[in-house]
TrEMBL record:
Organism the protein comes from: Phaethon lepturus (White-tailed tropicbird)
InterPro entries the record matches: FAD-oxidoreductase/Apoptosis (IPR050446), FAD/NAD-bd_sf (IPR036188), FAD/NAD-binding_dom (IPR023753), Rieske_2Fe-2S (IPR017941), Rieske_2Fe-2S_sf (IPR036922)
Keyword Oxidoreductase: yes
Domain Rieske: 60-155
GO cellular component, one term: mitochondrion
Keyword Oxidoreductase: yes
PANTHER family from the UniProt entry: APOPTOSIS-INDUCING FACTOR 1 (PTHR43557), APOPTOSIS-INDUCING FACTOR 3 (PTHR43557:SF8)
SUPFAM superfamilies, per the entry: FAD/NAD(P)-binding domain, ISP domain
Protein name per its UniProtKB record: Apoptosis-inducing factor 3
């Protein structure tokens, strides 16, 4: 027996539902020591639960019941959009056909154990609910109604959902934001990357209705950081993970250009660089890492960049156009930047201490294949050497001198020689930090201090497929999962992390995807077809 309940909210009541808990959607301006802080609130909240009228619904026959075998998927057209039809264990399911992350066709993905996995970046969705269960990405798939009549399969779907191909999970709001002391919060999240944002969203999805504050040194709301090296001319608004209105609607406060200088775990207080103090009940530290700089002579000259912000990436593209570029470090960032700039720059040279790129991650054979592909696209490699000096003319970079004696013409230099965890402010906190500066957490992303959690690139955690050995996995996908696990355990769910690491890179129209964390390579086959 199927019971269908449709709730229709009058316009006046609906507008109240969409308001912030303080009864208005106007910006909240907090002042500390007389200085206005940066907050996110806008006057245009978005609807968290749109109600569709009958004209928005479409129903269509998409196939015969015998057209699909168990374990098969098919992309079907409903006239105004497509859906993914799945037959699993004798039952039919219909969900969105595109991954909400980057739009990959899920029909080319893998169906296993009631979940479909994205073929591009590994995001995983429950076929019965459409819910996202592994990352990257923030949204779930829309789920459509399936019915069988006279051995034909029908799908009933919202036209809007067919067009958007994404669904944001229902979230709670803060019950009384106006009653809070401005210098205290229930949950404080230091860092506004993937881990921090997923933590905040998960808390709201689980019904948490107390105050959440995120703080970041960045000037922008959370954005898709991997695109800084893959799509370097993107503006912050183009790569934002959520629009400004989202943070307003769900009462997730974001303090931009705010740096935490110390944490007093005994009194549960975060001290900011400008002296402002904020009390917390639960704390997530998701500060990521800090790029390493060159230590050679002339390192202070102009036009030498670490790609850390959208402004950095945009500036490099502008300076590199029709000019000579030198990239130091054949890291993922360095190689992606090199690939992006080849069609724009006059020349691209890459300097690396190792003998081949990616040797540590993919082995020598894959590294040489990648190197050959780059060389065929006009990238010149200078391997097994380092930079000894950066020379300037009128204060701006002119030449890069290598220890091998080679002198390279350079108008702009991008440095990608690795990073260190951004945890220096925690040295006197009592939070357990290892010899390399990483925060040590358990399977629930908890530190040694009760109520203090950590996630993302700055942590080491027990990896199940490595027999719970403590590892650091600085992958975008893993940061998402860290944030979710931390949030669930702030709410005492007792959830342990068990996901498999996954990374990807894309260069010259080719992609490399890596799942797991291998110690050595048993068999390597290379094909760019």
């Amino acid at each position: 027996v199927e019971v269908k309940i449709e709730v229709v909210i009058p316009e006046k009541e609906r507008s109240k539902e969409e308001m912030s808990p303080n009864g208005k959607a106007s910006p909240l301006v907090y002042k500390v020591n007389g200085t206005a802080r940066h907050y996110h609130l806008e006057e245009h909240p978005i609807a968290s639960n749109p109600y569709h009228n009958p004209k928005d619904v479409v129903e269509a026959s998409v196939c015969h019941v015998k057209d699909l075998e168990n374990g098969q998927m098919r992309e079907v057209d409903l006239g105004c959009g497509k859906a993914l039809l799945i037959k699993d264990s004798g039952e039919f399911h219909a969900v969105g056909h595109k991954c909400p992350h980057y739009g990959a066709p899920l029909v080319k993905g893998v169906l296993s154990k009631g979940r479909v996995r994205c073929p591009w970046h590994g995001a995983c969705f429950n076929i019965a609910t459409g819910d996202i269960e592994d990352f990257p990405g923030l949204d779930s798939l829309p789920r459509f109604q399936v019915k069988i009549e006279k051995e034909k399969v029908y799908i009933r779907a919202s036209k809007q959902a067919l067009q958007t191909q994404r669904r944001t999970k229902m979230m709670a709001k803060c019950i009384s934001l106006s009653n809070y002391n401005l210098s205290s919060t229930n949950v404080l999240i230091i860092g506004a990357g993937a881990a921090g944002l997923v933590c905040a969203e998960t808390l709201r999805q689980e019904g948490f209705s107390d105050r959440i504050v995120m703080c970041t040194m960045d000037r922008h709301l959370p954005y898709d950081r991997p695109k800084l090296s893959k799509s370097m001319d993107s503006h912050p608004e183009q790569i934002a993970l959520r629009p400004k209105e989202f943070f307003c609607t769900y009462d997730i406060e974001v303090l931009t250009e705010m740096q935490v200088a110390a944490v007093d775990v005994k009194n549960k207080i975060a001290v900011f660089k400008d002296g402002f103090k904020m009390e917390y009940n639960k704390l997530l530290i998701a500060t990521g890492n800090t790029p390493k700089a060159l230590s050679c002579k002339g390192k202070e000259v102009e036009n030498v960049f670490n790609i850390r912000t959208p402004e950095d990436a945009n500036r490099v593209v502008k300076l590199a156009t029709s000019k000579n570029v030198v990239i130091v470090g054949a890291s993922f960032l360095g190689m992606e930047v090199a690939a992006y700039l080849t069609e724009r720059a006059h020349s691209v040279s890459l300097v690396e201490l190792e003998e081949v790129p990616f040797k540590k991650f993919f082995g020598e054979r894959v590294g040489r294949a990648v190197m050959k592909m780059f060389e065929s696209n006009r990238v010149k490699f200078y391997m097994q050497t380092e930079v000894s000096e950066l020379r300037e003319q009128e204060g701006k970079l002119k030449e890069v001198v290598l220890k091998s004696g080679k002198v390279l013409r350079a108008d702009v230099c991008v440095v990608g020689v690795g990073a260190v965890p951004a945890t220096g402010f925690l040295k006197q906190s009592g939070i357990n930090i290892d010899s390399k500066g990483f925060i040590v957490v358990n399977k629930m992303m908890q530190t040694n201090i009760p109520g203090v959690f950590a996630a993302g690139d700055a942590v080491t955690f027990p990896l199940a497929l490595r027999n719970n050995k403590k590892v650091n996995v600085p992958h975008w996908q893993m940061a998402h999962m860290h944030g979710r696990i931390a949030a669930l355990n702030m709410l005492a769910h007792g959830m342990e992390i068990s996901t498999v690491p996954y990374l990807w890179t894309a260069m010259f129209g080719k992609s490399i995807r890596y799942a797991g964390m291998g110690l050595k390579f048993v068999l390597v086959e290379v094909s760019w077809d």
